[in-house]
Input
Amino acid sequence: MPRPEVQAPPDVFYNGAEARKYTTSSRIIEIQARISERALELLALPNDGVPKLLLDIGCGSGLSGETLTELGHHWIGYDISKSMLDVALERETEGDLLLADMGQGLGLRPGVIDGAISISAVQWLCNADKSSHDPRLRLKAFFGSLYRCLARGARAVLQFYADNVKQSEMIVTYAMRAGFAGGVVVDWPHSSKAKKSYLVLTCGAPSLHTSLPMGKGEDDEMCSDDDESNDEDGDRTVGIYERNRPKKRQKTKKNGKGKDWLLRKKEQLRRRGHDVPADTKYTGRKRKTYF
Output
């Protein structure tokens, strides 16, 4: 069975029937709870007893939001599927719900969010579901608005399923271009079914306090450096990326306006009926820089 993001747009795939089926599946509920707990662990919120205002991007019917509520945090949920949000309202989730397309930006005030999580949602931005969709522009709008709304030093943990390496690289690239520091943490990298990738981003300059944890391996043990280096499939438990934005390409002016170009231009103007001086041996001659 192909993944949902390759079957239809999210607001089409998650209709009323699919939203209820998703929410009532005991397997889905267990997986969502486990991934949400791991995302909160990677979020590394300060243990000061003060509730935080968190963002749940692609909140769906509020399954991941329940984990946030159980830990005493306030949260705002974003989702593009009205059917999913309707189910969340029926379940009386305690978060504030917003019907919005994250590919158009989050539209929140700067610096008001203490942290953000996203479960199985970011990969949808890599698809062009409409003729007006450009995945790169949508990723740019999403990560740019996410960076602005986070408080400095706050983290965002985005669990995603990339269809291929190019998608993963594109997601990470636009996150780094927005100004984030961080990288990808992979749990159970040697398992085809249990493998989970988390993009762990820090809003602000990297420091010793923002270093990435190791991914989990068998028996929930942290993968060691040896596991990283000996991974024959090329999967790394932790991938760290540079925060610096790539340098813009220098604009180069190619001066192709020589004598041949000038003669062609004059001939073109003659055909259009313009009064053009006759060609001489001085036509197109390079002038000196002084008189």
